[in-house]
Amino acid sequence: MQTVLRRYSGKGAKELFDLLEKRKADVEELIGGVKGLVSYTLVRSGDGGYSVTVCRDAAGVDESVQRAKEWIATNAGEIGAAAPEVMAGPVIAHVNRS
Length: 98
What we know:
The protein is α+β, with helices and mostly antiparallel strands. It is 38% helix and 31% strand.
């Protein structure tokens, strides 16, 4: 499995997360369609927020990053949020208790 964390902070990040929260269903549908998706979490922080996406392979992680980038450009471009800090890598341990 592979994971990508996208951290949004700085200019426009709080406004971006206001929009993401308002359009939560759209975001869930968009990322839910990623092939090989294991889990997705969107978290608000004091200065914006971050997302954590876990996929079965790197192709899924790459697809999720591209989908997020395109969605933000189309739906939140006017906000002018800075590009996210992106960290990705292989999963060492994954626990899921639903």
